[in-house]
Amino acid sequence: MGEILHAIQDKYPDDFAWCYGCGRLNGDGHHFRTGWDGDKTITYFKPGEEHKAIPGFVYGGVIASLIDCHGTGSCALALHRKNGYEPNEDEEVPRFVTASLHVDYLSPTPIGTLLKAVGTVEEIHPKKWKVAVEVFADEKLCATGQVIGVVMPSTFATKK
Amino acid sequence: MGEILHAIQDKYPDDFAWCYGCGRLNGDGHHFRTGWDGDKTITYFKPGEEHKAIPGFVYGGVIASLIDCHGTGSCALALHRKNGYEPNEDEEVPRFVTASLHVDYLSPTPIGTLLKAVGTVEEIHPKKWKVAVEVFADEKLCATGQVIGVVMPSTFATKK
Predict the structure, then answer these.
(1) Contact B20 A51 (CB under 8 A)
(2) Rounded to a whole number, what is the distance in Å from the CA of A37 to chain B's nearest CA?
(3) Is the dihedral of CA A12, A16, A17, A19 positive or negative?
(4) Where does the Thioesterase domain start and stop, copy by copy (chains A, B) (predicted)?
(5) Which residues, 6 or more positions from B154, have their beta carbon under 8 angstroms from its beta carbon?
(6) What angle do CA B87, B93, B95 make, to 5 degrees?
(7) For position A92, which CATH number holds?
(8) How far A56 CA lies from chain B's nearest CA (Å)?
(9) Which pLDDT score is estimated for B2?
């Protein structure tokens, strides 16, 4: 509980592993890690004490960040699986960018609790995927969201 | 240019000035500050080098955070003005929470550039306001968003 064994972000190429939300190489970031749980995607995150909105409650921008990276990670997991691969395999993974992000804040999210983002991924075009996200604090649903992810355009690629 | 003289966040009571996005008392946060420019609201922010998505471009979660706090700050400015006050006056200001947040990412946002969020506020109910937001990097429109803010419920109040 609370642990992702094989996260898609573990397999992003080094050049794409610097994201403040989910990049394993970003020393200042959140290090979100997203994996499969059956046909749902999961990201766990425990916000720090500094990530508050007001004392006792998590900042909405951090929840939006969790949903954002959980969304693009879920898109990558799903396209990778469609291509025949799982994130524990040594195979290059697709990388998505966010086209749009929506968050509905349903109830104040207590700080000091492990958050769990659960995603349901749907292909709406070979290069455009949609993820419906629910964010739970313990068992309580605190926020819902939707991410539209698109395969990262080649113009984003930096020199190798 | 790039400076808000009288920000609504400067007047939030100390108990409500800890937000990771816009709290002046949060030593780790972004310190977003939102003020009037005529009938539009403005927040400037220069992301740090760590706030990247991939090298060269700003992380979408930071843009979402900017839009979130710009939105709630804009709601507070607008209700305060409706009540007859400007943020340079020594008068208690209203405080909003985010009901929903939407962001459309239109083009990659270059890092190292001052971002400018511009808001247009509309009252949809005495306790529920809507803010349409545009985020510019220099003169380029990089993202648009919408925030629905509601007056903070009294249940959020901590002991004084």
Answers:
(1) yes
(2) 24
(3) negative
(4) 56-140
(5) none
(6) 125
(7) 3.10.129.10
(8) 9
(9) 74
